[in-house]
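A quick aside before the break. I want you to see a complete sequence-to-structure record at least once, exactly as it would be stored in a machine-readable document. Don't worry about memorizing anything.
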Amino acid sequence: MIFSRFRTIVVGAALLLPACSFTEEALWPTLSGEDPAGARAPQPRAQQAPSQPASSQQVAQPVRPSPPVVGAAPQPALGRSNFEPTGVTSGSATGTFVGKKVAELREELKRLQAALSQHNSLLQDLRVKMVQDSQRYHGTVAAINARLQVGTTPGNPILVQQFNSAQSELDRLSGDIGEMNRLATAVTSDSTLSAYLSESAAAAFSLSGAVDEDHKQLAILEDEVNRSVVLVDRLLKEVADDVRRQTTYVATERGNLNLLSAGVKSGEIYGASLVNRAMASAATVSSGGRSARSSDISGRRPLVVIRFDQPNVAYQQAVYNAVSRVLERRPNATFDLVSVAPNAGGVAAVAMNSTKARRSAEGVLRSLVEMGLPPNRVTVSANTSAAARGNEVHIYLR
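That is the input. The structure line, written in tokens, reads:
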């Protein structure tokens, strides 16, 4: 209610691009689109005027914000435990059946610990490799963002080459995760063997024909088996945790790379993927569609208005800034993307303008998807307006 009582018209000069305008208050509309404070007394004109689309002629020198250099999210920490087994105590032959059973179990335990030692060494090597691959990836992404930060040409071939390198480095990280998954499968086999040894050692105490030395050696063996069981379980859990965290990390970076690709193509710096901004606070909203249908936008304040009054309108940076600010406050936010065409000029002219406006809306939707916003968070619709002087695309917070 604070925002509805103390309404401030923010002149978004730092966010204006040619043919784009923003409504700061649209960040916090009610779900119905009505003023939560109800009817109010008339206000001075400067405070009452709604946000109007700024044409390209009105913005002689657009001012662009200077976002900080955005790097990839840090790699989640890998486990640090070392799972080297302590070894197996040797024993002397007693000549009994139970003594032979103890000797067999001892050899099985040695085989288990040898496999455990090998898998531990592989895990430590994989961790070192994943850290190195991640460092190379972060360095490459940081170099791309640093160049985009100071400005560069669209499709700069140097940045394209660096982007391809970053993609290859992320692929290597995915390969490392695949190796760790195979390691987890191998450790699962160790876990099965350790469980068998534990049950066999416990059952050997009930066998007849044993001497005291047999039970003495069997007790030592059982302790060593139990320690190995604990070690295997801890190894399996830590490998599973590493796989889970790194898989999520790589999936997140895939989204960021998709947005970085759009930045390299346009020569602009954006930031993290839009969906990654919201993932930490809320799950993706599953409602919404993409069918172009009529939509009532009367009385609603748009978050962004893009006027397509010239070729190649550069709206991407401004749209990203506006949508990302909404997601910082409302991670579950969904949006209405409305193509608006003028309804003057006869039926044929209205139909032609509506088609052009819908195509422009489809282009804006593609840009949002490239920025990481899931398509099911956006509903696309169409409308005509007597106030529109040309084809426009409006973005509303639903």
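Two observations worth writing down. The radius of gyration is 32 Å. The beta strands are 20-22, 304-307, 335-342, 378-385, 392-397. We'll return to this after the break.
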